[in-house]
Amino acid sequence: MADGGCWRPPRPCEAYRAEWELCRSAGHFLHHYYVHGERPACEQWRRDLASCREWEERRSAEAQRSLCESERARVQAARKHALVWAPRQSPPADWHLPLPQEKDE
Amino acid sequence: MAGAGDARGPGPAAGEPPPQQRGACQVFPERPAQGKPPQEGFLSGFFTNDQKCPLMLLKTLETNPYVKLLLDAMKHSGCAVNKDRHFSCEDCNGNVSGGFDASTSQIVLCQNNISNQAHMSRVVTHELIHAFDHCRAHVNWFTNVRHLACSEVRAANLSGDCSLVNEIFRLHFGLKQHHQTCVRDRAILSILAVRNISKEVAQKAVDEVFESCFNDHEPFGRIPHNKTYARYAHRDFQNRDRYYSNI
């Protein structure tokens, strides 16, 4: 987390509002139930929106802490499953090479 | 490599399953081992249906939010996509819609089996997910069926293949958690379309990798249920520098 005067919310407050609205929509309820078999949880987006607005208005340290904690939890949740394959350090060497028959021409 | 005819070269690493529930291992009859350029006929038949494939592809690449995010992500990973180098419209055997050929780093689009613009967008999304995996990880397409299974799970999960609407059109009716059933089934079909293995072996591979690969949503960060989700995901991808420097 960046310190002091350089810090700003990880997402614009408008993005938190949009995610909260999408989460609460009937369409998202249907999609989420179709995938996970349960209703979605949207409260965290509402809390993050409130924290973002509080930081925008009052530069609240508590709001900053709350947002960072929330987003780190999202990142952790996305990374918790072990990978099936080894990540590359560089792209495949032949990605940009001409096709074999083009090379022969 | 198992499943491909010797005269045809290595063949596709990963493919879209046919609409009917049967696979075909040798799906690209004109994919040459040598000599014949795969893009022969790309511009021929200007007034025939074959011209639809390149035009639909161009529209997808320029307008579809799923594809635009994937193209950005691949460029960021060092695999910038060139339409003429990395895509090929071809006629294919069976009912397969497309495939990713890892041996040539090329996406094959089966122009005789892609029926409309929406279908083209979904096939391109599906195959770009394979290409993205090829770009960011050491995927042993031809020797490790678990790696292939993982990429097929991700492609079925993230491309819209298993949307509620698409499943209803296939007359597969289910709601609660049906998406996961669809992803498993379509991943197995895709594996069987490109590998000469038994359904049991394919199923076992999908079961072993499902937990990890179903929850790997890169580069979307979420399951994009429709274009709105894909646009939000693209917005987040473009914002990633700000995001990771402020958490």
UniProtKB/TrEMBL annotation, chain A:
It is found in: Synaptic cleft. Pfam families: PANTS-like. PANTHER family: UPF0545 PROTEIN C22ORF39 (PTHR28052). Belongs to the UPF0545 family. This is Synaptic plasticity regulator PANTS. It comes from Ceratotherium simum simum.
Automatic annotation (TrEMBL), chain B:
Residues 1-41 are annotated as: Disordered. PANTHER family: MITOCHONDRIAL INNER MEMBRANE PROTEASE (PTHR21711), MITOCHONDRIAL INNER MEMBRANE PROTEASE ATP23 HOMOLOG (PTHR21711:SF0). It comes from Ceratotherium simum simum (Southern white rhinoceros). This is Mitochondrial inner membrane protease ATP23. Pfam families: Peptidase_M76. Keywords: Hydrolase, Metal-binding, Metalloprotease, Protease. Belongs to the peptidase M76 family. It comes from the Eukaryota. Its EC number is 3.4.24.-. The keyword Mitochondrion does not apply. GO terms for molecular function: peptidase activity. The gene is LOC101403578. GO terms for biological process: proteolysis. Residues 1-14 have a biased composition (Low complexity). The keyword Metal-binding applies.
